[in-house]
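Q: I'm writing a short explainer about Alkylation response protein AidB-like acyl-CoA dehydrogenase for a general audience and would like to include a description of its predicted shape. Could you first generate the structure from this sequence?
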Amino acid sequence: MDASLSEEQHQIRRTLRELLLKHCGPDDVKAAVRTEIGYDRSLWRRLAEQLGLPGLAVERRYGGVGCGPTDLALASEETGRALLPSPLLATAGLAAPLVAALGTPRQRAELLPRLAAGELTAALAVPGCTLPAALGLTGPNDGAWSGGGRAGGVQGRPVEGGRSWRLYGEARQVLDGHCAGLLLVAAHAGGYARSRTLLFAVRPQEARGVVRTRQTALDETRPQARIELRDTEAELLGADPDSAPALADDVCGALTAVGERVAAVVAAEAVGAAERALERTVEYARVREQFGRPIGSFQAVKHRLADLYVAVQAARSAAYYAAWAVGRDPDAEAAPGRGEGLRPQVSAAAVPPPGHESARVAAGLALAQALETARIVAGEAVQLHGGIGVTWEHDVQLHFKRAASDELLFGPVHRLRERAAEAAGLFGAGTGREAVAL
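A: Of course. Here's the predicted structure. Afterward I'll give you a sentence or two in plain language.
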């Protein structure tokens, strides 16, 4: 593995950082989150047109940049530094890979170019508050999280001889679900006899029976919504399950594969946010005086800041390795001229094969370490800023809310580590901690 970045990756980071410094300062962030959609539409359009950010990991044949998940993670590190409120994670991190992995040729040709261009935003809606489970981050993805029987979760039933579907149920904590032009809804179908989890495409502006309510979130830079579906018409993502019985397994497998990528992306994003919070704290420690001298001159403060710096660098190393492991293509690495730099150059539609345990372990551990580091750094930043650190007027509180919210959305950290240990084979045949194989 060559851990150095390519020149193209350096250019992406430099251009993105310069653009965000100009148009996504703390005041811009606070103004954007208070709008109806929760982000700056003009900035999102600029990121899409100038940098191709939504299509960074989409194949070129569908109008994307074709870089792969590693480059998306590196870009997300910069968006994390700025705490950019945008539909990037929901659209490019969650929805686009699912459409690429499960969609029919017609669905890919129809949806992916619009997603890559940024003109269509999307959100993944899973029942209840089960996003980590649905992505296979906190346990084996067997589809149980989607609800069972005839009640609970989101239920799907075929109509017109199976040519179309109707959905009924509710999904909460849907990232950017209040304004997305496309909803990918995970629903339970088949009742008791043919129980399975399927994925459906819903166009909320066209379908009837869709009620979307933006919720009050701890972190306003990650807007969340409650989606209610009342006999809503939906399109099955992928082939007809009657003609492709393995589709339900494909859905769970695709969600797990996307979970690995999302873990690497969120880990890089958390590292960027933690690094910027540390920089703000160091700047403050240099100018804030106590007892006639800057507080940064005290040895105890120096030690705390040094520990935070080491933690951020360790989390970055883990996030970079996870991004490389998730996007790694063994066949491409063996070919001459391929696999140079950190970027693995894999197809955006490629889904890691079953048993891709090394990537799963790396992604889970990197996400756990990054979320924990972001929480610790943000907490120390508030402490070292004193009372001003928790006020709305100061910027460090935005980092603290982002760290706390991400751990609630994608954690908890101890379950991420436990799942990674299970995937690595550190547990025996039992299900409890007493089964750990020492």
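A: For your explainer, you could say: Strands lie at 122-125, 154-159, 164-175, 182-189, 196-202, 210-215, 224-236, 289-290, 293-294.
Q: Perfect, that's easy to follow.
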